[in-house]
Amino acid sequence: MKFHNKLTDWYLVNARDLPWRETQDPYPIWLSEIMLQQTRINQGLPYFFKFMEAFPTVFDLAGASEDKVLKLWQGLGYYSRARNLHFTAKYVAHELNGVFPTTYKELKQLKGVGDYTASAIASFCYQEPVAVVDGNVYRVLSRYFGIDTPINSTEGIKEFKSLAEKLLDKKQPHIYNQAIMEFGALQCSPKSPDCDICPLQVDCVAFQQNSITALPRKLKKTKVQERNYNYIVVVDKEGQVLLEKRTGKGIWKNLYQFPLIESTKTCETLEDLISFNDESLPQHILEEASLYNEKPIKHVLSHRKLWVSFWIVEVEKLKLVENLSKSLLMTNQIDTFAVPVVIEKFIDAYGFSE
Q: Which UniProt keywords apply (predicted)?
């Protein structure tokens, strides 16, 4: 039996019941694929339902404010995905009259849509014979064929894409592509795959050579940078708090945060904190700060490790505080702003809304 037939037979019995598999409408399929980039299905599924409820069509998503999109996305991480999602929705709605491109090449021109996502949409919606290659596919092919070329190398990306195209069931690419991804997610899982009941076991090179745990191979990543973040939480007796909007090109672009002071070491005392102030806040404000968490909170991102401290400053009335930057805003509705997860957890613990 051919490789793709075995996978398809397995899929028809074991496939999970997922909402985007019940349609060929490119909008929910595109939405799900963007959300599931670097996100597990069980984590992304609630967000998919939230977005579909809030924005049932691409026109609804295009008409939303970026702040609302980022707020609904809050907690999924990799926020550039949400910004690209919103940009593309506006492009499709306004420039393409709400009609998504129907070919792999055209889909790949959309912002935030790369080779994998374009292949997925083109095959799932339009049955175009293009192979998907995601982490699950890399794992299945690497183990089954015993390929140790690093999957994150230029050579590996080309090699696996070429192999995936050769194996593709061109008569039903939409079924095969979903089958191989589902197989990698459920059967040929990253850790502790159940090889004893695997339908590919007999011809699997990694199983025969006892190299399951060694494959697929990846080139080592660059060293993760460590940063020290000190958030200054200035609140008054009326329940107002100071926030600022992040700018620049970082992953948290356009999210909101408390005024931030970065330091080259953990600030254990008020004197430490003041020494790193770049005048983003008046010194007389910082002189009233008290440390909220005794030990810095470790917050790990893909490219850096943050050590986060929150400092509380209580004032009588924020409107009367002098020398505040114009970029700072005052609000008593902090729950309506999109913030990074580490700040969201602090907000819940501190109890602003109580």
A: 4Fe-4S, DNA damage, DNA repair, Glycosidase, Hydrolase, Iron, Iron-sulfur, Metal-binding
pLDDT single digits (tens) 191-204: 889 899 999 999 99
Supply the pLDDT for residue 139: 96
Q: Is residue 116 predicted with pLDDT exceeding 90?
A: yes
Q: 22, 33, 128, 238: which one is catalytic? A: 33
Categorize the per-residue pLDDT at 1 as very low, low, confident or very high, splitting at 50, 70 and 90.
Answer: low
Neighbouring CB atoms inside 10 A of 181's CB total 22
Binning pLDDT at 50, 70 and 90, where does residue 209 land? very high
Domain 3-214: assigned CATH number: 1.10.340.30
**Structure confidence at residue 178 as a pLDDT band (50, 70, 90):** very high
Q: What is the pLDDT of residues 242-255, one digit of tens each?
A: 999 988 777 788 89
Would residue 128 show up in a list of annotated catalytic residues for this protein?
A: no
Q: 225-350, what's its fold?
A: Nucleoside Triphosphate Pyrophosphohydrolase (3.90.79)
Residues 6+ apart with CB under 8 A from 9: 199
**Between residues 145 and 272, the one the model is more confident about:** 145
